[in-house]
TrEMBL record:
InterPro entries: AMP-dep_synth/lig_dom (IPR000873), ANL_N_sf (IPR042099), ATP-dep_AMP-bd_enzyme (IPR050237). SUPFAM superfamilies: Acetyl-CoA synthetase-like. This is AMP-dependent synthetase/ligase domain-containing protein. Residues 12-123 form the AMP-dependent synthetase/ligase domain. It comes from Streptomyces rapamycinicus (strain ATCC 29253 / DSM 41530 / NRRL 5491 / AYB-994) (Streptomyces hygroscopicus (strain ATCC 29253)). It holds the Pfam family AMP-binding.
Length: 135
């Protein structure tokens, strides 16, 4: 079994050697299982990484405000590919307590950028840094 220096190196190798292999499996809305291939996961993470690098995110903190699932995995891997520091938080809700908790994390972690899902963009943009993008 090959040894890898890090997770991104392992994923890149899998995307090349087993592009159609299952990287992620998660329940779909209809109750079936949805699978994401290594090639698809790598391509989506590369796209997020490119967005982050275009904003000079290497070494900077990026808030990941998302529901658990494949989008969160893609955002995390995109941060790793770009050399950014992921700061994951639960997806925002209408709760004032949740909003205050997230705002506190943004301040304490000195977050520079935000990645979120389109469904959460409005809630996330309140009190977030200047650059926010849906994944």
């Amino acid at each position: 079994m090959p040894r890898y220096a890090n997770l991104t190196e392992a994923l890149k190798e899998r995307a090349l050697s087993r592009p159609d292999g299952t990287a992620l499996a998660h329940p779909a809305a209809d109750g079936t299982e949805h699978r994401v291939s290594y090639a698809a996961l790598d391509a989506r993470a590369d796209a997020v990484s490119a967005w982050l690098r275009a904003r000079d995110a290497t070494g900077r903190r990026v808030l990941l405000a998302m529901d658990p699932g494949p989008c969160a995995a893609v955002a995390l891997l995109g941060c790793l590919y770009a050399g950014a520091v992921a700061v994951p938080v639960p997806a925002p809700s209408a709760s004032r307590t949740d909003a205050e908790r997230t705002a506190s994390i943004v301040r304490d972690a000195a977050v520079d950028l935000v990645l979120t899902e389109t469904a959460h963009a409005t809630e996330t943009s309140r009190g977030s840094p200047e650059s926010a993008a849906p994944v």
